[in-house]
């Protein structure tokens, strides 16, 4: 247990160092906040890094229009409880056109997530953007530097990243550039749950098992978050199953897992025993979807 504590303490200290170094070199920073477990841990670390002051940046949430309702409620409670200014951005034109994850696939991701993100960053004039991505999530994430340069249009060029020897970070930017900074780069899914357990951190209730109405769609258990907006297939009927989520995206394309883990400790145990990637619950990452790397090249999270 002592080794585990030392490992987590090292990660916490590293993340706090990254947050402070980035803010020291920032003109106008912002933190992306999806209200998922990673961004919640990142925001909690920011509270520690700048205590007793409130962190010197707002939280920015991109509302795709198809977020879980429980997630939005948690987002608002978390920001209010900790004194964060919360900015919510959405693509109003995409909403008016009815762009949705059922019918529009990658086009939906681009229009309802990537484009409003870039518009919000441009509109706010943010130069340093904190994100909660971890390198163990997906191979494209593993190519990221901790301080990742974005060019004009928020494009990511993995071949033009800066060296980060001895944890020396370069925050100098050209007028057309910005930085995505990832304080959780070296954390794993298990580390996230260990931190939440050690700090009794409240997370979105979707991560914990309860009975939910789901449909088995192409091998994925899709929770029917809003029955009136669900695009039903012929003969499809919801069934009540005891499920939870390891990863959270838009509810029509996020698969649940059957589980009895209903609190932080049992989720932690289940996570340690898992042999599949948490992102396998993302239907939007499937074979017919463009790669996460391609999405990042276009300015995605």
Low-confidence stretches: 285-289
CA-CA gap between termini: 34 Å
Number of helices: 8
CATH homologous superfamily caption of the largest domain: HUPs
Approximate shape: globular
Count of separate structural domains? 2
Q: What is the N-to-C order of secondary-structure elements (H for helix, E for strand)?
A: HEHEHEHHEEEHEEEEHH
Alpha-carbon Rg, integer:
19 Å
CATH domain class name of the largest domain: Alpha Beta
- Percent helix among the residues? 25-40%
Mean pLDDT: 90
Strand proportion, as a percent range, falls in 5-15%
- How would you write the strand order of the largest sheet? 3-2-1-4-6-5
Query: From the helix content, strand content and strand pairing, which structural class follows?
Result: alpha/beta
Q: What is the CATH topology classification name of the largest domain?
A: Rossmann fold
For the secondary structure, the number of strands is 10
CATH architecture of the largest domain: 3-Layer(aba) Sandwich
Biggest β-sheet description: 6 strands, mixed
Q: Your description of this structure?
A:
Mean pLDDT is 90; it is low at 285-289. A hairpin with a 2-residue loop joins strand 7 and strand 8 (220-223). This protein has eight helices and ten strands. Helix content is 35%, strand content 15%. Helix 1 packs across helix 2 (37-49). It folds into two domains: 2-193 and 290-297, HUPs (Rossmann fold), CATH 3.40.50.620; 204-285, no CATH class. It is an alpha/beta fold.
